[in-house]
Fold this sequence. Notes:
Distance between the termini of chain A: 36 Å
CATH architecture of chain A: Orthogonal Bundle
Largest sheet of chain A: 2 strands, antiparallel
Strand order of the largest sheet of chain A: 1-2
Oligomer: heterodimer
CATH class of chain A: Mainly Alpha
Number of strands of chain A: 2
Amino acid sequence: MHPKKSLRFAPRFPGDPATTAVARPSTGHRLLARPELGSVVGMVAIFVFFFAIADPFRQATSMGTVLYVSSTIGIMAVPVALLMIGGEFDLSAGVNVTASALTASMLSYQLSVNVWVGVLVSLVFALGVGFLNGFLVMTTRIPSFLVTLGTFLMLQGANIAITKQVTGQVATDNISDMDGFGAAKAIFASSFDVGSVTIRVTVLWWLLFVAVGTWILLRTRAGNWIFAVGGNVDSARAVGVPVKQTKIALFMGVGFCAWFMGMHRLFAFSTVQSGEGVGNEFIYIIAAVIGGCLLTGGYGSAIGAAFGALIFGMTNQGIVYAGWDADWFKFFLGVMLLFATVLNMWVRRLAVRR
Amino acid sequence: MSLIEMTGVGKRYGTIVALHDVSMRVNAGEITCVLGDNGAGKSTLIKIMSGLHQHDEGELLVDGEPARFGSPRAALDRGIATVYQDLAVVALMPVWRNFFLGSELTKGFGPLRVLDVEAMRRITRDELAKMGIRLNDVEQPIGTLSGGERQCVAIARAIYFGARVLILDEPTAALGVKQSGVVLKYIAAARDAGLGVVFITHNPHHAYLVGDHFILLNRGRMRLDRKRAEISLDDLTREMAGGDELTALTHELQRT
């Protein structure tokens, strides 16, 4: 539909309450309104904390490890954040990573074909899981929390049961000597050195995914629709936003990244443990929430989710470098989550108040 | 020819008759007021016109041709825009994103088509200025605007996107006296610009200030259908308040 610019419609009523100009908010105010603020503060605090108490944390080489750990969460946190902004959850995200890796691994090994066949079939599979999640949520109108809890349990059970049936054990056979493994490893699980620091390729992929996620959210029509379907689904529908397609695409985005992480795990370790991935879905969600995503949808950012993942990576490794029991990690994560959520809430209240 | 003409339109939800035998016309440059109590069928009527629901009795003509809208988008494409009382905007989104929601301007080609953010910001600012709302910062969440301003943004949006029929669902219901006045002025201005306006309200005073034609719904049926010249504000208010039922009630409650 083309806007009618010729329409003369310029009534003016001086003195109306509505004609009063609204003052421009200050720069500080604008900064406060960014969803990422809480996560930036948390990130700096965590960095300073471990920098002060853990000697190995200060070395450049450990940065490579921190970034790698962060990237394994961060790659998934991007689509999970987009999905949350769109007003939905995906609890099957963690096990879908494992399911994709298992599909690629077992299919290639059992049929003795090039690993790329398995890679492509598992892509179709992971996207299919995403589509099914989205389709069920949109057609049944059951909350996504329940629908994806269902697919989570189904995948968790099937992952182990099918692996045991096919391989006779709970892990898949080593595929490192199969055709195409080298090329796939180069793409999904290689590393390179920058000075003394070893950088895993997933860090680069992570940066790319964050950039693409941010671009989609802020610079494309789809991004506008994601904010709208999460913020007020009825309004969005009433002005002609394709609600169903937008939400299903978001679930498929989670499926795509789950496939990507699954391929990373497969080509990094050559074998897949079928029970892996359970519980990771919450870590993705936590990274998104620390990064400023509202649980109720309609608000958040992909960059914030990246900061959330970085907080996860720093804490995870910082505790090891500080020589503490690794079990303290979950405790720290809980503290961070509460801290970041309260800070985000407070900041948002400041930002909306005029 | 009327922009919209409905004859004998009805709608059932299962066994419940929400609307039965309703006929009305929407003409360019006229304001048709649809009045009625809660549950009278006002919402069902506008949902049929705006494409959220489909009628299952009677006929809906747009520009003289039978029409049946599968989605709000289909109605919008025929120039029928609806401004809803509570779901007009997404509160957390910036004003300009709300203004262009669902009809975003883009530049570039193919998959790399991006939003033309600068143009959308500028147009939003200009269009709102025409309506007398001067916003320096169209980046602020629309939830920070007052209720009246939000209605005006929604009306400005509909007009900018070439609406020929503007359906307003209780635009003054949640507003104070002054804010209602502002919104009513824009309704009149939209009529002067040649749009056909359907004004849903349960306030006969607001309706009579701007209306050319009045339709009163009661339990899904048309109770009254009058031109402005054929009815006074007092009669309209009396009919709205219950008409004969009210007279009976007055007698009943009268102290002796």
